[in-house]
Write a structure and sequence with these properties.
Blueprint (H helix, E strand, L loop, with lengths): L23 H13 L3 E9 L2 E8 L1 E3 L4 E2 L6 E2 L4 H14 L24 H5 L24 H11 L13 H15 L3 H13 L5 E2 L11 E3 L3 E3 L14 E3 L1 H12 L6 H8 L10 E5 L2 E10 L2 E8 L4 E10 L3 H12 L16 H4 L4 E4 L6 E7 L2 E6 L5 E2 L1 E4 L2 E4 L4 E6 L4 E6 L2 E7 L3
Antiparallel strand pairs: 1-2, 1-13, 3-4, 5-9, 6-9, 7-8, 10-11, 11-12, 12-13, 14-15, 14-22, 15-16, 16-17, 18-19, 19-20, 20-21, 21-22
Pfam family, one: Beta-lactamase
Protein name: Beta-lactamase
InterPro entries: AmpC-like (IPR050491), Beta-lactam-related (IPR001466), Beta-lactam/transpept-like (IPR012338)
Amino acid sequence: MQQRIIYSLFLYLISAATLIAQDFNKLDQYFDSLEVHNKFMGNVLLKGNGEVLYARSLGFKDIEEGVKLEEDTQFRVGSITKMFTTVLVLQAVEEGKLKLDQKLSEFIPEIENSDQITISMLLQHRSGIHNFTNDDLYDTYFTSPQTREQLIEIIKEGGSDFEPDTKGEYSNSNFVLLTFILEGVYDESYRELVKERITKPLRLEHTLVGQGKGSNEASSYSFENGWQKEQVTDMSIPLGAGAIVSTTEDLGNFIEGLFSGKLISDESLGLMKEIKDGYGRGMFQFPYYEKKAYGHNGGIDGFSSMLGYLPSEEVTICILSNGSNYNNNTIILAILDTQFGREVKIPSFQTATLTEDELDQYLGEYASDQIPLKMTFSKEGNTLIAKATGQPETPLEARGNHVFEFVQAGATMIFDPEKGEMTLKQGGATILFKRTNL
């Protein structure tokens, strides 16, 4: 359900810049560059005051069949689903069917620490329940249907990672359990609850809980020597943690409906926006200069997504991708920079070609005093490979002058072979690593 690499979850807080006029032609050029260099496939949407300001479809719904993406193509939206689930939970609270301080033990007592874990902790990732999608075992069954009993047993076996309410740590398990709680409270399937309580009232005609690949749904791809089709998760598994299928237009209407009071009260919306240790209830806060956006992002089966709303400006942004070989945060910043009149630079994807012998000067293990992370660099042919602690091996793109990039994570690595040092720059952070095997 999620790739275990150093992708960042949020837009980074950056300093103020000089305002210039909007230039959507420049944004077209930006996306033209991404498309021609096989960096991004998907749909993007920007709205202001409820009106569409910019929309674009890039790439293919199905590469093998040569079918292009269209504005109404459906995508798996991954963890944006958690916003839908949270709305359903808060509706149940408003109706007196649930209480935020109710214990998990009243519904699913077999989970460790269930007598200490509340509904609110599940919503805000403070339960301590282990994230079952992080386990290697997950890769052995994610394409096969799972029952309620099987999922509860898997989550039960995962145990607890920390004492409830002592910190926040992301776990899909929380929202799978919330799905079962909602189904029990209403005696209806999660799929029907989403339809009756969210998509029907807001007239979201292309949004549903997935059950299998629909005819209007995009296939997803990863990039490795060309676009390669991804395996897909059986939607009986992610449920309220990640099973929604939707479009950019529908998601834009969903978050605007949420903030305009069409789904829950202002008090309940305030609970969603209440941030503690980086987590709201089913919602994140994304800083953009002095402004604040609220929303969620997601990733599943090669799909990646982001939905955000800036309340003070009434600006909505949505990205749904079925193939990304670039950092989506950078794309989001380019769209927002265009909207707010800041300069957008067209990315250059010019690469340098190094020989195997030239790569030798970078090889070895590097450690930092700033963070508890080690990075090991090896080579495959004339490609430099990075492997961070607990992460898979990742091929880097050479940019010349001892500079390499991991574009998908927005990470740049600058080597100084004579000193045996490597400087990692990512999301505004600069971290110095020194080679340990000099």
